[in-house]
Amino acid sequence: MSLIPSFFSGRRNNMFDMWDPFQDFPFTGGALSVPGETASFANTRIDWKETPEAHVFKADLPGVKKEEVKVEVEEGRILQISGDRRVEKEEKNDKWHRVERSSGKFMRRFRLPENVKVEEMKAGMENGVLTVTVPKAEVKKPGVKAIDISG
After folding, report:
1. Rounded distance between C-alpha atoms, residue 4 and residue 81, angstroms
2. Cys staple from 132: which of 57, 92, 105, 125, with CB 3.0 to 4.6 Å?
3. By the 8 A CB rule, do 61 and 83 touch?
4. What per-residue string of b and e applies to 65-81 under the rule 16 or more CB within 10 Å gives b?
5. CB 105: neighbour CB atoms within 10 A?
6. For the SHSP domain, which residue ranges apply (predicted)?
7. Distance (Å) of CA 115 to CA 51, 55, 73, 111, 134
8. Rounded distance between C-alpha atoms, residue 123 and residue 126, angstroms
């Protein structure tokens, strides 16, 4: 006899499934959602590191082809990384037990610092990781000029 008989009843497959308080909550579409798709733009994780030579952005985009990703620079210094993660085709006889992978459009924007060479920016994709490298411009240090003292 269980003290909490309904805790693992219903749709639970095993004792390791956690109770999800939002399981049956009706998430209705808002201004940011697309019907039938999970809004994944907020879930696209991007690392930004600065090295002595460049700013390097790395985005984990598993299952996304490079043709489905756009890297753009807007207004001179706004880096925009966007794309579309496709929904897996659903067969008529399929029975889904859990859907956790996100799909749909994603977009992230970053304001680049002034000391970058946007025209020399490079992007590459390998093993589901997008790497965008933005080289830094050399900062010219003001030279020292000796001034003759008259008199």
Report:
1. 48
2. 57
3. yes
4. eeeebebeeeeeeebeb
5. 13
6. 37-151
7. 13, 10, 15, 12, 10
8. 10
